UniProtKB/TrEMBL annotation:
Keyword annotations: tRNA processing
UniProt keyword annotation of ATP-binding present: no
Gene3D superfamilies the record matches: Cytidine Deaminase, domain 2
Protein name: CMP/dCMP-type deaminase domain-containing protein
Gene source species: Clastoptera arizonana (Arizona spittle bug)
The keyword Protein biosynthesis is annotated on this UniProt entry: no
Family: Belongs to the cytidine and deoxycytidylate deaminase family. ADAT3 subfamily.
Amino acid sequence: MSNNSKTTTKILQEAKKTVTSRCEVVVDNLLLQKINTVEVLVLKIEDRKQTSRLVHDLNKIFPLPTLQHIKRINKDEIVLCNADVVNPFDILLKAKFDLTGLSSHPRKIKVPSEKPTTRKQFEDATLLWPCGFHENKYLEKLLAGTLFDQEEQKLQLRWMKAALEAAKKSNVCVGATVVDPSNNQLIAVCGDDRTNNPVKHAIMVLIDLVARTQNGGVWAKSAHDYFCDSQILLDSFHHKKRDVNGFGKPVGPYLCTGYDVYVTREPCQMCAMALIHSRVRRVFYGCSYKNGALGTLIKLHTVRALNHHYEVFKGIYEHECQSLF
């Protein structure tokens, strides 16, 4: 084989490896959408010495309670009021506002209607008008795909691989694992058994197995449904629960609090809600599903009315997970 052929083969292998291990965050659509805008009237400041007084007086006459995130001044222009204000100059006259240093010819423009949450939104917003922004570095790492280091990525591949092996033995080719990230301990692994019981989706079986480690659980355990690195039998295995972030002091035995779940296929609405009730920290799924509730039909984990939220990532061993169906 020529050197060029070897190089091409190596590139293709690396590309395949990259696709295999791709991990993409699934976030609220609000973080991905373009910044919304609202129209305002602006006036040119003709005498910069009057700027301080103009800002002070306009803040009293035309406060901007819904636009606290934007700057009142942009270079030589000042925001007068929202564009839907009727006869703003009549209001200024009644308030005996001093127009000295200010143009009397307003210009209608669009400004950000809300405070930007991400740096991308901030950059887009400032193209319209200056506004305030406090960067959330953790969120930016999530969006940029730089949150996990190489060791964490290797572990993610390992846990999803275990779920894949369980899926191959299950009736519906879906497998799942749950891990305690505070010590990288595998807690449970299972396959899908809905052909015997319509409720026994892989996630539901997994949560039941975790409940068994806490002296709970209602379903009989399959011989292939559970293992841990130290080969401790399920019936004698007990573990301490961590806080919701996966670290810190034990906070009492409540299902999957602080745990990470890996599942080969995107969970349905029932399973996604069960994961919320069980208080997982993160969910990783391999491939999307037409009835999936963590990115396809809805993003259940982002519903603000719920009392718990977990992070969701997709794409680990995506091709391998998809090929099971």
